[in-house]
Write a structure and sequence with these properties.
Length: 254
C-alpha cells in the first residue's frame, strides 16, 4: 500500500485516514476493480480508512495474467497487508465473489478480523459452483447484463468488452471452482442480500451465521444482485455503525 492515489500492487487506499480507529478491506466482485468502491471509501472516511483490493488482469494491472483461483487472490492480498503492518483493527467487506475472497483472507490472518460483511453471495458452506466461466463470450455477456453492475456501454463496445472479458471469465472460474468451506471465524458477520438476487437466496445468506463464533446479523434489501447500488447509503451506515462498536484496543490486523 502506498500514499493516497498511488497504486500498490494488490491494495488501493483512496482516502488516507490516519486518525481512523479501524480499517476496512474491500474485496471486489467478479470482474470488479478497485475504482468501483471509490465512493464507499469516500463516504466512510475519515471515520474508517478503506483499503480496496485490486485483482490482477484489470485496469492498471491489465497486462498481468488473471489469478488462477481464490487462494491466489487471498494470498496476494495478505502478503501486501503484511508488508505494511498497521496496529489498527481490520474489518473485511466482500461483494459477490469478493465474499469468498474475504472469507479466505479472514482464515489466513494471524488474528481474526473485527468484522466480516458478506454481500450478495452464499455462505462458504453453501457455494453452488456453476458453469458461467465455460460459456462462450456471448454467454458471459448475457450473464453479467442480467445481474447488473457493469456499465451497458462497456458491453456494447467491442474494444472495451475485449478488455474486461478475460477478467470476468477468470473470476467466474475462480469462484465457481472454489470448494465449499466450513471454517468458523472468531468475529461477527453481517450478511447483506437482495430479495431478488439470482445468486443468493435468503437461506443461503443466512447460512453465514454458521461461520461465526461471535454475533450474526442478516439484512435483506429490495433488489437484485447489485442492490448495494440502490441502497448505498444504508450499506455505508450499516458498516460504519457496526465498526463504531469496535474498541480502540482491539488490534486485529494481519
Amino acid at each position: 500500500m502506498t500514499a493516497p492515489g498511488t497504486p500498490g500492487l494488490w491494495v488501493r487506499r483512496f482516502h488516507a485516514s490516519p486518525d481512523a480507529r479501524v480499517r476496512l478491506l474491500v474485496l471486489p466482485h467478479a470482474g470488479g476493480s478497485a475504482s468501483y468502491y471509490f465512493t464507499l471509501s469516500r463516504d466512510l472516511a475519515p471515520e474508517v480508512e478503506v483499503l480496496v483490493a485490486q485483482y490482477p488482469g484489470r485496469q492498471d494491472r491489465l497486462a498481468e495474467g488473471c489469478a488462477g483461483g481464490i487462494e491466489e487472490l487471498a494470498d496476494g492480498i495478505l502478503a501486501e497487508l503484511r508488508a505494511d503492518p498497521d496496529g489498527r483493527p481490520l474489518a473485511l467487506f466482500g461483494h459477490s465473489m469478493g465474499t469468498v475472497v474475504a472469507f479466505e483472507v479472514a482464515r489466513r490472518l494471524e488474528r481474526a478480523p473485527v468484522w466480516l460483511f458478506a454481500s450478495g453471495y452464499p455462505a462458504p458452506s453453501r457455494l453452488r459452483g456453476g458453469d458461467v466461466h465455460l460459456r462462450d463470450d456471448a454467454g458471459i455477456v448475457a450473464e453479467i447484463a442480467s445481474v447488473g453492475g457493469t456499465d451497458p456501454a462497456w458491453l456494447a463496445d467491442e474494444s472495451l468488452l475485449s478488455l474486461i472479458l478475460p477478467s470476468l471469465r477468470a473470476d467466474y472460474g475462480a469462484a465457481e471452482r472454489h470448494p465449499r468451506g466450513f471454517a468458523v471465524l472468531d468475529c461477527p458477520i453481517t450478511a447483506l442480500v437482495g430479495d431478488r438476487d439470482p445468486y443468493t437466496t435468503e437461506a443461503e445468506a443466512a447460512a453465514w451465521g454458521e461461520h461465526t463464533a461471535a454475533g450474526f446479523d442478516l439484512r435483506v434489501f429490495a433488489g437484485g444482485h447489485f442492490c448495494l447500488e440502490q441502497h448505498a447509503a444504508t450499506f455505508t451506515e450499516i458498516m460504519a455503525g457496526a465498526l463504531r462498536s469496535v474498541t480502540p484496543g482491539t488490534a486485529r490486523s494481519s
